[in-house]
Amino acid sequence: MHLLVIEDDARLVRLLRRLLTQDRHVVETAETADEGIEVAGASPGLDAVILDVGLPDRSGFEVARQLRRAGNAVPILMLTARDAVGDRVAGLDAGADDYLVKPFAYEELLARLRALGRRPPPRSTMRLSAGSIVLDEALRRVTVAGREVQLSGREYSILECLLRRPGQVLSRDQLLDYAWPYGAALTPNTVEAYIHLLREKLGPDGAACIETVRGMGYRLRGS
Question: Residue 83 burial by CB count (10 A; 0-12/13-18/19+): exposed, middle or buried?
Fold first, then answer.
């Protein structure tokens, strides 16, 4: 992942840079809110921002709000020593995606970053397509080579998730996170079963766009 750490504690920054780099992440850092906003704006490939609330020039809440006002949808993991419910709510309302209270275990930080990475990108279009497949969000309608295809809610969600990340291999967990509510009772073969149903309904032309990557997941080609 390409990460930006906005944190004024120099010792913590050094530690996170070392550990994250060892785990093969690309890490950029900023010590102030203004510097962090500038780096985030100049780095469109960021996968996540690790943002401290207590920055010297202004709060992390304001950084999150400014990034969102600028249309920057990068996932934000907020770090803070404040563990009151009101503070967590304020961070989430400002635009943060998750909240981690200091002190924290590095393993939990990694787990939360992985969870953010599994989330689908924000919706930016009403029409998605790949090959002969067209998904119209406004009408909630799917066609293949002009033929309308009736999909169940889960099948539609899986196809939408694949269409939003064309060419990218999506794991079973990523598809589960997108198409099923948290806590749903699922079996290990749930995704495989729905992919099979989806391919059948899409027909030969549409099914050919969904590629199985053995041991990794699925990806959409033909976009």
Answer: exposed
